[in-house]
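Researcher: Go.
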Amino acid sequence: MKKIILFLIFASLSFSMVTIGKIHWYKDYNKALEVAKKEHKIIMVDISLHHCPPCWYMANIVYNYKPVADYVNKNFIPLFYYADKDRVPLAVSQYFTGSAPSVLFIDSNDKLVYRIIGSRPAEIFLKILQQIKEK
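Model: Structure:
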């Protein structure tokens, strides 16, 4: 019985978060928004496509770069969607232009703070993150 309960707990947690690179992404906008309000952080939304080389680069290179992953995990509420698979909530999709990858920074009032379209080298992406956090 304990094994079943542990399995159910683990299964429910795994559906609300996903790990891409070394970043622990939320998959539910409402949950991310709740945490963003509680922790006074900006939501960082990555919207990618499955067969997109720049999206692959972000997921496998940039998000695996330890300084980027550590900075995101500490300073933002990361949220991830595949535009060609997931149902992207209206609060997010209203800011999505259709270009991938799109990294959207949304405050706890559902307002777009900043948008990055396309991939960036890890060091440059980290500098952009730091500038967004400072503002």
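Model: Confidence is low (pLDDT under 50) at residues 2-17.
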